[in-house]
Design a protein that fits this description.
This protein is of the alpha/beta class. The chain has helices at 23-36, 53-68, 80-89, and strands at 10-18, 41-51, 73-76, 97-98. It has one domain: STAS domain (Transcription Regulator spoIIAA). Strands 1-2-3-4 form a four-stranded parallel beta sheet, with helices on one face. Helix 2 links the parallel strand 2 (41-51) and strand 3 (73-76). The chain is globular and about 35 Å long. Residues 1-99 form the STAS domain.
């Protein structure tokens, strides 16, 4: 019998561009992780080249779903460009980042 640690974080490594062509698949991937897990969810953004408005929408929707399910979702590996985008849009507080 395998016992899973419900408090162990689930880490999703995201890469490439988060744009109109990739948001649907990304939404499915993140929401599946939110729905499957009870522990924290960490989105590793270190290999993300670009994040457009649709990508921000996906992240915000996932954050809302995670909060509703009692799952903590954080971003890591956030580039200075993405950090600035989160700051400008006011989403920095809603999408917390860890170093």
């Amino acid at each position: 019998m395998t016992v899973m640690d419900a408090t162990a974080p689930t880490v999703l490594h995201l890469a490439g561009d988060i744009d109109i062509f990739t948001t649907a698949a990304l939404r499915r991937r993140i929401l599946a992780a939110v729905d499957a897990g009870a522990g924290p969810l960490v989105l590793d953004m270190s290999a993300v080249n670009f994040c457009g408005a649709g990508g921000l929408g996906v992240l915000l929707h996932a954050q809302r779903r995670a909060t509703a399910k009692g799952v903590t979702m954080t971003l890591t590996g956030v580039s200075p460009r993405l950090a600035r985008l989160l700051e400008i849009t006011g989403l920095g507080d809603r999408l917390p980042s860890i170093v």
